[in-house]
């Protein structure tokens, strides 16, 4: 009664919470055990979608140890610097009151997380053909999240008119954005751009991708890391087909991609210029 207190107080204890469905967690609060000398002075926070693969909450690129309580009754509230999207949480005590035991009361704050998810089996792809009137010559934005156990696979492909193409591909757990302008004679200065970001992205956790194209400026973001580069003005999205392929290529080996393997895993919230692609696929 009065909170969670394991039989043995050591570094191997943790309290796991199942929220029932994925939620967006924005803050946590802790107290010690009611009417006791049991409280936790520092702890780690871990999260998971499945209850099997766990990730530690990080801040400023390092594992974050939360400052806990200094008595049994005061509430220590902590607003997360960046929200967590997960179904399961684990609170892992690191230190506790020397004159007592591990003791915790916990509150979690957040809201329901709405998302559109689609699964790919490594043999299929989702093709989105759009009206060329909707094309904006100056701006193109693609965003999505992905989760996979496979180290290789094509996430996104778009073909060009002269053999050029844009391909977003997972290779050995890293994400490569390959922009090929096609005709090397016409564009010798930057016929091919290959930017690689991230590592160990095949860890079965969600990773976010954002590709923004404004005039000749391209921003490529994976999780929180962004690479900015210029395509020197010759690169135009208007030379590309009005068709985007997610999860693979319609015709395998059509372009000189790295692995030529279709994606095997899940995509969440695919947006192309604010169009919700998964929702569109479900409705049509």
Automatic annotation (TrEMBL):
<dbReference type="GO" id="GO:0016020">
    <property type="term" value="C:membrane"/>
</dbReference>
<keyword id="KW-0472">Membrane</keyword>
<feature type="domain" description="F5/8 type C">
    <location>
        <begin position="1"/>
        <end position="111"/>
    </location>
</feature>
<dbReference type="InterPro" id="IPR000421">
    <property type="entry name" value="FA58C"/>
</dbReference>
<keyword id="KW-1133">Transmembrane helix</keyword>
<dbReference type="Pfam" id="PF02210">
    <property type="entry name" value="Laminin_G_2"/>
</dbReference>
<dbReference type="InterPro" id="IPR050372">
    <property type="entry name" value="Neurexin-related_CASP"/>
</dbReference>
<comment type="similarity">
    <text>Belongs to the neurexin family.</text>
</comment>
<keyword id="KW-0812">Transmembrane</keyword>
<dbReference type="InterPro" id="IPR013320">
    <property type="entry name" value="ConA-like_dom_sf"/>
</dbReference>
<dbReference type="Pfam" id="PF00754">
    <property type="entry name" value="F5_F8_type_C"/>
</dbReference>
<feature type="domain" description="Laminin G">
    <location>
        <begin position="117"/>
        <end position="284"/>
    </location>
</feature>
<dbReference type="InterPro" id="IPR001791">
    <property type="entry name" value="Laminin_G"/>
</dbReference>
<dbReference type="InterPro" id="IPR008979">
    <property type="entry name" value="Galactose-bd-like_sf"/>
</dbReference>
<protein>
    <submittedName>
        <fullName>CNTP4 protein</fullName>
    </submittedName>
</protein>
<keyword id="KW-0732">Signal</keyword>
<keyword id="KW-0245">EGF-like domain</keyword>
